[in-house]
Design goal:
- This protein has 123 residues and is mainly beta.
- The protein has one helix and seven strands.
- It has one helix spanning 56-63; strands spanning 8-21, 27-37, 40-49, 69-81, 90-102, 104-106, 111-113.
- The two termini are 13 Å apart.
- Mean pLDDT is 87; it is low at 117-123.
Length: 123
């Protein structure tokens, strides 16, 4: 598989997750993913939506739990808005996940170990 434009690939640990349905019935799952960089962890917030071919947000809600190590593929999405009572436009960048797979983090070697693909949830 070649590299796609605007593709983000992160490995990390699920800090928390939130799953809900909007008023119009759209399923949205949001996770906080801690990504190790050297000796520190950075946090990313990733949103997942159901698609026409896959109930991705519902899979996140059902299969992921706090503390799981996963690999996430997604894309960056920028939105701009002006808060109520302000005249200044704010730009917000989010990661929208398109895929996830469970991975193992070896605490002893401090490295991720990938399975043979027989476990996890991915396209």
């Amino acid at each position: 598989m070649g590299i796609k434009q605007n593709q983000v690939n992160l490995l990390g640990r699920v800090g928390w997750k939130d799953f809900k349905y909007t008023e119009n019935g759209t399923a949205i799952a949001t996770i906080n993913l801690g990504v190790k960089r050297g000796t520190t962890w950075d946090n990313f917030f990733i949103k997942f939506f159901n698609t026409k071919t896959r109930n991705l947000a519902e899979e996140i809600g059902e299969y992921l739990k706090e503390g799981d190590y996963i690999q996430v593929t997604g894309r960056l999405v920028e939105s701009k808005f002006t808060p109520t009572g302000s005249d200044k436009e704010i730009s917000k960048i989010e990661i929208v996940g398109s895929n996830f797979k469970h991975v193992r983090f070896n605490e002893e070697t401090q490295e991720f170990e990938f399975s043979d693909g027989s476990h996890g949830h991915s396209n």
